[in-house]
Amino acid sequence: MDWTHRVLRCAVLHTLPDDDVLKDNAHQLCEFGHFLERQIDIFNALDHNRADALRIAHKTMHDGIRAISHQVFRGEPGNEADLIQFEQGQQELIEHLAHFKTAMAVRSSLS
User: Fold this and answer.
1) How far apart (Å, rounded) are the C-alpha atoms in residues 38 and 67?
2) What is the 3-state secondary structure (H, E, C) of the chain?
3) What is the pLDDT of residues 61-91, one digit of tens each?
4) pTM greater than 0.90
5) Is residue 62 a contact partner of residue 105, using CB atoms and an 8 Å limit?
6) How does pLDDT run across 12-58, given as a tens digit for each residue?
7) Over the Cα atoms of the chain, what is R_g?
8) Which of 11, 58, 64, 73 is the residue whose CA sits 20 to 30 A from 106?
9) What CATH topology corresponds to 2-110?
């Protein structure tokens, strides 16, 4: 959530976001990206396909906001398709995280 707030602040205040927004590998530079890579074995053990989908959703979200950021900071309006990409990626990321939260709760209750 902090990342999204920072991006919104940059858009409103017309300041340049950090590398975890603008770089092509921003999804690997952000705090969540670091967390995901450190914990990927746990996610894979719970549900390998969902772990892959989580990574894709995370990257999709970053790709969308990066495109929007470049447009906005050039003084151009953002592209609706990029906004939809960001929103869809964010929604999918949240859904995947909810899945993993439930999977972890079930696993711990069986122990």
Assistant:
1) 27
2) CHHHHHHHHHHHHCCCCCHHHHCCCHHHHCHHHHHHHHHHHHHHHHHHHHHHHHHHHHHHHHHHHHHHHHHHHCCCCCCHHHHHHHHHHHHHHHHHHHHHHHHHHHHHHHC
3) 999 999 988 888 888 888 999 999 999 999 9
4) no
5) no
6) 887 888 888 889 999 999 999 999 999 999 999 999 999 999 999 99
7) 16
8) 58
9) Four Helix Bundle (Hemerythrin (Met), subunit A) (1.20.120)
